[in-house]
Amino acid sequence: MTAPADGRYLEVERQLRNAAPHALLDVTRAELARRFGATDVDLLMADYAVTMLQPVSVLPYTARPVPVGTSEPGKSFGAQQPRVERVSSGVVVHLPVTVRGDRLGVLSVGLPQAPDDVVLDALAQIAEVLAHEIMVAERDTDLYLQARRANRLTLAAEMQWQLLPGRACARAEYSIGAQLEPAYAIYGDNFDWSTSADRLTLTVTNGMGEGIDAALLTNLAVNALRNARRAGTPLADQAALADQAVYGQYEGRLHVSVLLLEFDLTTGDVEVVDAGSPRMWLLRDGTAEPVDFDAQMPLGMFDGTPYTAERFRVVPRDRLIFVSDGVYDVASAGGERYGERALARAINATRLLPAAQVPRAILQELAGHRHASGPEDDAMVLCLDWRGRDQAPAEG
């Protein structure tokens, strides 16, 4: 983006960085009114199911949610582009509030007239700064997390959402999008990622059980893997150390299925440890196929299980789809499992969507297949679009 010549963006940025965590929206409203003549400013946060945009308001309630799929703010959220809506009092500019590919919501700004390119650019930059400040502020206030909730979360879901790194991430080499369902009552499925200058580590987890027991088990496994990763341990040893932690706590009564991958961002070489049920699909050159690795024991099943890593390679324009057993084992009213053919169709049908939108689209297809009594298990879908080094810039 080109910095606005009048410097108004920099003044608003300065005020936002100095604002109290709970006062970001108040400061944004005041600054946009003072410097841009804004008549109305609203911040809408995407809910956990990514179906609604919930306005931020005074705790403990939000008001007037709008649908992601059909509303003007929702169209800005989906396209990740500013959108100018004409209204009787002038225009409303809807701006994505996104940080490093993680789509948080939309900033809607009422103006007396349509903005020129300089003003639109400044407003877009302000929305981006606001996204960064919200991520920092969430350490100190519940206001923005509260606004994400269209319904009350179960305690297990609260634990799982707090464990996640986000719902999306993007940089030059790749874009990631992920989603858990049912969003307000998940318990065992999870995902995690961490990136450095030359590496991306990705973990897809499926814990046994239901409710709090499943959430506690998954929390232990994910944090054991993080602890080993942050110590600089090789991938196979990360799995072995996490295996010891889970076995030490549960002595084989419960275990965790994990697919653990480490990507070399320069070459596209991938180390993989397959320790259970999460599966990976590869969409390459228009063909979607499951990728089978050497199946090893889930974490915590036996004492002292050794793990070995195998190799895989991704090339630019590859799309990887990771799914938990809550996706491919779901049954229809007639008892038919979702299965590989249906999943391949869903992957192909979403091939033109950006990575951040793919999980929601596949899970919606899954919901259409599922019988009316509701889910028997939680479900996780994660999409990774690989560009590699010196490829197109990150989306979002």
UniProtKB/TrEMBL annotation:
Matching entries from InterPro entries are given as: Bact_Sigma-Reg, PPM-type-like_dom_sf, PPM-type_phosphatase-like_dom
SMART domains per the UniProt record, alphabetical: PP2C_SIG (SM00331)
- Cited Pfam families: SpoIIE (PF07228)
UniProt keywords, alphabetically: Hydrolase
Q: Which SUPFAM superfamilies match?
A: PP2C-like
Keyword Hydrolase: yes or no? yes
Which residues are in the PPM-type phosphatase domain? 171-386
MF annotations from Gene Ontology: phosphatase activity
PANTHER family listed in its UniProt record:
STAGE II SPORULATION PROTEIN E, STAGE II SPORULATION PROTEIN E-RELATED
Q: What is this protein called?
A: Protein serine/threonine phosphatase
